Amino acid sequence: MRYLLPAVVFVAFAALIVLSPHIEPRRLRARALLVDGRLRAEHGFITGSKASWAETRATGWPPFHYGKHRETDGELLGTIDGYPVRVAGYECVNAGARHRYGLACVVLPNTVDWAEVRGEPVFSSARVPEHVPDGRQPAALPDFDKAYQIYAEESEATALVRSRALASAMLEVPEQFNWRCLDSEVLLWRRDGWTSADALFTAVHTVLQILDPLLLADL
Length: 219
Known about the structure:
- It contains six helices and seven strands, in the order αβαββββαβααβα.
- It is α+β, with helices and mostly antiparallel strands.
- The protein has one domain.
- Strands 1, 2, 3, 4, 5, 6 and 7 form a seven-stranded antiparallel beta sheet that branches.
- The N and C termini lie far apart (80 Å).
- About 6% of the residues have low confidence.
């Protein structure tokens, strides 16, 4: 007994060290399955394909800019506010840790200029390398600059992303996320994945509301 308790403690501690890197990824995948189930059952989403994400991932822009063993899962197709939407989970391994993101890609009726909005907490991990583009723009509200970063070229999109309307809309969303519009798509992504189907819908609703003036411009 004298040596049994220390041995048990040591084995338990060693098991915790070995298993801990796998606990959080499993939890996040389980949550993603619940979200996928809600999207299928309540919103009519159907099974998508990995191939549909090939071009989006090929940009090498966040969140596809780092890590090894990159793969998507839970690919779904559906519509939100009448726009075609692809949804998926994305994982990569960096510095021995597995990182997960929730993805949503909205197909737009016309092309829009590049603009990107990032929520800082998503890139707070010291083990996640930053990919910072040129063209950082100040926002209309100081509180927004504390929570988000805006990048855009000098174009019509710049005036839109710097507007008070964008800042107010993004600050009202309960869960921070990131988005980037490029050509005829807008990609939304969130570190650790979407917490619920409602959170995903809220994020997409918000971005489409912000982009509405540009989407209507060429119609």
